[in-house]
Structure formats: C-alpha cells, structure tokens
Write the structure tokens for this entry.
Amino acid sequence: MRKKGSGRFVKNANRTSAGSGVSGIGHPAQPKPRLRLNLTREKILAESARVFNLRGYDAATLDEIAQALGVTKAALYYHVRNKEDLLLQCHQKALDIAIDAVRTALAEASEPDEQLRAVLTRYIGGMTDQLAGIVVLLYEGALSPSHYHQIMGQRDEYEQMLRGIVEAGVRSGVFVPCDSRLIGFAILGALNWIPRWYKPGGPRTPKEIASAFSEYFVRGLQTHPSSPAVPPGRSARGGGQGRARPVADLGLVR
C-alpha cells in the first residue's frame, strides 16, 4: 500500500470539465486530445527520468519534459502536480520494482544465491525494459522533507531485505564470509548508476544486462561458483563473440 502523501496520477475517467453541462443535440461532448489519452504513467515517468538524467533535476523543466512527450505543458499538468511530483514518482516506481523483485525472489527461490540472482535480474530488467532506465538517484534538496523521508524509508527497507539474503547465504555456506552492509552498498551503488550510462536500443538487451550484472555479483559471493563467467561483448546483437571494444562502442553510454 502506498504511503499517504505520495504522488498520484489523475485518472482521466474520473475528471469532468467544470460547466460542461449535459450533452445533447447540438451540444456533442468534446473528445479529449488524442495525445493526452496516449499519455501513460510509464511513458511520463520514463521520459521524465531521461530528461532528469540528461539535464540534471535542477536544470530540467516541465516544458522540456512536455516537449519530449509531444504534448503541451498544460496537458502534462493534467497528470502531475509539479516537477517534484514527477521526481517523487520516479523514485516510487523504482522502489516498487525493487521491493517486488525481492518479495518474488524469496517466494520462488529457496537458496540465497538463486534469490540474489533473481532479485538483481528482475530489478535490472524491470528498470531498463519497463521504464528505459528510470532515475533512481536522489538529488539533494529536490524533495520536500516528508517525501524525502518517505523514499528513504522504503529504500532502507529494500536494503535490509537485500542484506538479509546475503547474510542467509553466509550462514548457509553458499556465500563466502563477508560484510553484508558493504556488499549491499556495492550492489546498490552499481544498480543506482545504471541510469547514468544505459541507452535503450544498444547492442545489449535489458535481459542481457540484467543477466551479466546478476552473474558477476553472485559469482563474486559464491563459495563454489556454479555458473560460467559471463562471455565478453559480442560484435552484434544475436551474433558471435567479437573483439573487445571500448565501453562507448557498446552503445550503452550517451
């Protein structure tokens, strides 16, 4: 259940225009602009995240976000309250994906290494595929104190769940002895930086990126690695193994 005070998108079906009266002969109901009807929560958040990452939160404007979506700022205001509302919901959506990934992994997998692999795969896949690299970095002072504490509380909940999987793996001998807090920071740091370099349409699919990250982290913790190392980058999507290339050549950075 979303905490009280979190931003919400307005449902078009529940809003009526003031003074519209009863439609009848000679007074047909006016259809809403097509572009407004095509605006979904996912589209708005994904484009907002892209603009925030490209321009920085302080420099980004609602005009730029509206232009990127192909609508007027007035149409954007129909769905959101202000720029902070957009940033809040970007964080909220990312946390929803993250916490859901942990809960699903704990329900479907029994071993800590499989749980951690599932958590990372589902989260990275959801972040890159569903929302094209939704912003997850907290900009200092961008959120009001109440919204900041709301997001930080949920982030801490996610961190504790992630740390619990690592600690369970150490206790069972599946993972090597380690500081679960530091490991948690390392994992979160890597995940939070993905929006800074991820580029939709690059040679690596969201599924491949998620698989690579999860395998690297799980293998690094396993007492007896159970899977082969992730192969190097390929020359083209679906092609064979190619020569090593600079990161920028992989199509993953802006």
